[in-house]
Amino acid sequence: MTLRELYESIGGDYDQALRVLRMEKLMDKHIRKYIKNGAVEDLLSAGEDMDPARLFETSHAVKGVSANLGLVRLAEAASEISEEFRPGNPRRLTDEQVKEKMSRIRELYALTEETIKKYEEG
C-alpha cells in the first residue's frame, strides 16, 4: 500500500497533507506517529467522562493534528466537538448527541488505525 492509497482508503486528503508537510517523507513519518500519540484515545476518554474542559482541549488537539495530516473526516468530527465545548459557546447538543458524535470519531479512528497498520506492514 502506498501513502496515497492509505489516504484514499480512509477518505483523507493526500494533497492537503503534502501542502502542509511539503515532503512525502514527513507525511510518512507523521502518519506513523498518529496512532501512537494517544490524542484520539484522550478525546474518547474525555467523551466517556463528558468533561467539558477536557473535551474542548482534546478535540481541539485532534482537530489540529488531523487537519495537518489531511485526515479531514477526523478533523471535521473533532471540530464539531471542539466548537460544542469551546469556552463561552452555548451548548447546542444534548449529551446523547455528543455521545453519537464521539461514536463516529471512534469509528473513523478505528478505520484510520487499521489502515495505517496495514500501510506499516508494507
* Largest sheet descriptor: none
Structure annotation, total helices? 7
Instruction: Give the strand tally.
Output: 0
Q: What is the beta-strand fraction?
A: under 5%
By CATH reckoning, the class would read Mainly Alpha
Q: Compute the number of structural domains.
A: 1
What structural category arises from helix and sheet content? Answer: mainly alpha
Helix content: over 70%
How far apart the termini lie comes to 6 Å
- The overall pLDDT average reads 96
CATH fold title: Four Helix Bundle (Hemerythrin (Met), subunit A)
CATH H-tier superfamily? HPT domain
Quick one: overall form? elongated
Radius of gyration using CA atoms only = 15 Å
Question: Could you name the ranges where pLDDT drops below 50 across 5 or more consecutive residues?
Answer: none
SSE order, one letter for each helix or strand: HHHHHHH
Q: Under the CATH scheme, which architecture would be assigned?
A: Up-down Bundle
